[in-house]
Amino acid sequence: MNQNILINNLVKVKNKEYELAKNIFLVLSGTIFIALMSQLTIPLPYVPITGQTLAVMLIGLAYGRKLSTSTLLSYITAGSIGLPVFANFKSGLPFLFPSGGYVIGFLFAAMICGYFADKGWTKSYVKLIPVLVLAHFVLYFFGLIQLAIFLPGKDILAIGLIPFIIGDIIKMVLMTLLLPFVWKFVKE
Q1: Which candidate, 122, 135, 129, places its Cα nearest to that of 63?
Q2: pLDDT digits 0-9 by tens, 94-113
Q3: Helix (H, G, I), strand (E, B), or coil: what is residue 50?
């Protein structure tokens, strides 16, 4: 068990037999958390502003790479098979709608956050900032590529990036302040 991962320090199990049950519970609860945060939306014409990015990054930073990857794959699978877990209670294959690239980007953003969480970077205010910037860059990379495919000739940056910058900065500041603060209590 990696002691650098926040969730391992918050939810401890003594027996290896309970580790699988704990992980299943965390994946399911993380998937539900992302789905609920997806419904916190500010509608825009092509891509809504949602609470998903906050949820995805927090899952990655708190769960570590393996568990956050499982959680995001479960979330994407749930939406792909028809459960209304995406923003505005939508579902479907992410490759089939303009904002689906962001959903794919969520997986890679969580993996990046999880990778650095495994290394203990969530304990430091200074180290957490570049992790979040990198994760957001990867998220927007996938989102903007898919938007460009679905909306040729449109100003993709004005549609899929600029409206989100202020909100993402606020979310990054919140996560940067929250996680190292929580670690201080976990260490004690």
Answers
A1: 122
A2: 889 898 999 999 999 999 99
A3: strand
